[in-house]
Amino acid sequence: xxxxxxxxxxxxxxxxxxxxxxxxxxxxxxxxxxxxxxxxxxxxxxxxxxxxxxxxxxxxxxxxxxxxxxxxxxxxxxxxxxxxxxxxxxxxxxxxxxxxxxxxxxxxxxxxxxxxxxxxxxxxxxxxxxxxxxxxxxxxxxxxxxxxxxxxxxxxxxxxxxxxxxxxxxxxxxxxxxxxxxxxxxxxxxxxxxxxxxxxxxxxxxxxxxxxxxxxxxxxxxxxxxx
Length: 227
Description:
By secondary structure, the chain is an alpha/beta fold. It has a domain at 98-165. The chain is 29% helix and 30% strand. The protein has helices at residues 67-75, 106-117, 121-135, 150-162, 180-195, and strands spanning 2-3, 21-34, 37-51, 56-60, 82-87, 91-94, 168-172, 199-204, 215-220, 223-226. The strands form two sheets. A six-stranded mixed β-sheet has the order 6-7-8-4-9-10.
C-alpha cells in the first residue's frame, strides 16, 4: 500500500476484502518550466478504481488524458502526489512502449525475467512454450530484438508480462501493434486467464469490442467514471 499526502479527494471507495487492486483519490501534476515562469499542469485529479478477481476491466481516455500516468502509478513505476494504492504483489505490467534490450534474443529476455520472477526452470519452460505457441512467434526465439518487427516486439512485451501467470495484469495499449489474427489470440488468452481467476486492466484510447469487458472506466478531466 502507498499512503501519500492528506490532500483532499473524493469520497473513498468502499473497502473490499476481495479486491486485487484498490486505488483511491489519485492526484498527479507535472511541473512545466518555460523561462521566466514555471507552473504545474494537473493530469490526475482524484482518479479512483477497484478491481475484483476474475474480471477484465477497460480504462479509456483520449491521448494526453493521463492513462499511462495512471497505469504507471498503479504498477509502482511512478509516485502520485496524493492518494492511496493497494494491490496484490502478484502482478504483471505490459507498458505501452516495450522495454526490451536490443542485443538480447527473445529466449534470453524470458530467461532473464523468469529469474527475476523466481520461476523454477520447469515452470519457465512450460509458460514460455505456451505463450510462444499461443502468440505464434516461436520461430523468433533465438532472434535478437534488433531484428524483430514492431508486432513481434509487442508479442514479446506481452509475453514478459504474462510469463509468471500473475493474479493481476496491467496492459497499456497491449494490442496496438497486432494484426487481426494476433488480436484474436490476445483476447482468447485474456479471457482464459480471466476465467481462471486473474484480473486484467486494459488501457486504450478507444475500445471497439465493449462486450469483451466486464466493466469500463472513462478517464475524463483527470477523474475516472464507470460506464
